[in-house]
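Person: I have long wanted to understand how a fold can be written as tokens. Underneath my words sits a plain record pairing an amino acid chain with its backbone structure tokens. Those tokens are not coordinates but codes from a learned vocabulary of shapes. I should like you to check that the lines agree and flag anything odd. The protein I mean follows directly.
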Amino acid sequence: MNFPACLILVNLLWLMGKVTPAVIVEAPTTGDYCFTTDPIREQPYDFSEDWQEQKKEIYQEGSEYTKFRKSPEFLNVLTSVSKRGGYRDVQAAEKVELIFKACTYEQAWRIHEPSSWCSLFTPDDVKVLEYLHDLEEYYLSGSGSELNKLLPLELLDNFLNHFVNESEPRVVAFFAHSTIIELFLTSIGLAEDEMDLRADNYEEMENRKWRTSLLAPFAGNLAVVGFTCKPQSKNHLMFILNEKILSVVN
């Protein structure tokens, strides 16, 4: 079997608040490493009414996400940041979250320079805000919903079919948003915790696998590399997430 050298799923970079349109990049039939682009066809959540309804429920009263926004841990962050910022009154959650978003973007853009926005947050504050985001994504594109495991199956089938077709190019790359990467990882059972993320188990989930800052960061990527070992001539797939080897499958 003539395995392609590599399949890559890449998260597009956010640039100045805008997202470049997602595209599929595939090598043409002539040449192993040349690429052409076509509009992406694998955004299944755009066509799923159930998923769109599920997304709305995340932000409704009583969801794990909204309950955590009322938790002592989160309210302490609001108080802490407000005092550190010199405000007399405790600032609204939306404002503190916006400041934190400015912190993350500025730190990403200027890696070697300290961000003034980030100076308002302690390491414990960051952990709480990270958990809030992980809670949101857990039910949006993680194992918090069985639907999330089913949505990307067509993409997964497309992704892996390149390995069984001998006429395929050596390298195929798919460019998509972080939601697609998270759904894809969910469908293959990666980063699945034994316990669901909830509003009331923040401390218990400190060592959780579902940590979106590590799974789908800026320019996050999942590579699947096909190779053959001699003398047995067995075919293998190696999964590499953000340049770190996860596993090798026979």
User: Anything to note?
Assistant: The domain at 5-12+46-244 is CATH 3.40.50.1240 (Rossmann fold).
